[in-house]
Amino acid sequence: MDDLLIAPGPGAPHGLRIPAVELVEQFSRSSGPGGQGVNTTDSRVQLSLDLATTTALEETQRARVLRNLASQLDDTVLTIAASEERSQRRNRAAARVRLAGLLREAVAPAGPRRPTRPTRGSQRRRLEAKSRRGAIKENRRRPDSD
After folding, report:
1. Which of 48, 83, 101, 102 could form a disulfide with 79 if both were Cys (CB 3.0 to 4.6 A apart)?
2. What is the chain's alpha carbon radius of gyration, rounded to the nearest angstrom?
3. What is the largest CA-CA distance in the chain?
4. What is the pLDDT of residue 115?
5. Amino acid 124: pLDDT
6. Domain spans in the chain, listed from the N-terminal domain onward
7. Are 29 and 42 in contact (CB under 8 A)?
8. Strand ranges in the chain using DSSP code E only, listed in sequence order
């Protein structure tokens, strides 16, 4: 297996090179249609990369990737599964392409926030909600002795 090369882009101006020794591939039987081949070949590929220990990322890139991919990580390990193709070789290539795409997007910095103003409708709804809440609190008061 060769190193995984990621093209230059935002957040990685020189691209990324993930050494092949840091990528862990596991193979298993794929589910779904495929006839007899599905029962005999281990064509499903799981490609894993530990983002906390990889040498391919700088510290700022590592922090950004861990933050952006937090929902997809198991501890600090990113795992991609590919089982769309019938051959293991094509699934390996698909998993590598998918991993490269995820990392390319995750390493890119977020764009600047465009300041926006609340709409007239949202301002009106907010004020009405405040009035309703104030009326509820007003009704909790002890009645006047008059």
Report:
1. 48
2. 26
3. 90
4. 92
5. 98
6. 4-107
7. yes
8. 4-6, 16-18, 23-28, 44-50, 73-74, 77-82
